[in-house]
Specification:
4 helices, two-stranded parallel sheet, NAD(P)-bd_dom_sf, RDH10 dehydrogenase, oxidoreductase activity, acting on the CH-OH group of donors, NAD or NADP as acceptor, mainly alpha, oxidoreductase, SDR_fam
Length: 138
């Protein structure tokens, strides 16, 4: 979650380098797609490197084989602060991708206000995204 920027984007890129099939969620469709583009670029580079290092013969006569990977990235626009949106998106992921084995529950908001100056709506939004959403997504 929160894959469109910041730590969420950095986590996505690092998991891509480790050959993970990724499911990226963010409230911002455009930034989520930008992250997916960066992930696809990493996947293409790895595929090119694997092709360039075509299987050779190791010193013991065994072939060095680069494991075949079907690396993919899926994007979903989801407001994790809205429980029903989380549940609907999770169901789509189960149908379209399958079960999730690792969850990086990263989405979060920061108000930028001192507590006593923060409007109630922003406090509620912060709690929904930074607290409740972690339970719903999990």
């Amino acid at each position: 979650t929160g894959a469109g920027s910041g730590l969420g984007r950095l986590f996505a890129l690092e998991f891509a380098r480790r050959r993970a099939l990724l499911v990226l969620w963010d409230i911002n469709t455009q930034s989520n797609e930008e992250t997916a583009g960066m992930v696809r670029h990493i996947y293409r580079e790895m595929a090119e490197q694997a092709a360039a290092a075509a299987p050779g013969v190791a010193g013991d006569g065994e072939k060095d084989v680069v494991p075949h990977c079907n690396l993919q990235v899926y994007t979903y626009t989801c407001d994790v602060g809205k429980r029903e949106n989380v549940y609907l998106t999770a169901e789509r992921v189960r149908k379209e991708v399958g079960e999730v084995s690792v969850l990086v529950n990263n989405a979060g908001v920061v108000s930028g206000h001192h507590l006593l100056e923060c409007p109630d709506e922003l406090i509620e939004r912060t709690m929904m995204v930074n607290c409740h959403a972690h339970f719903w997504v999990t």
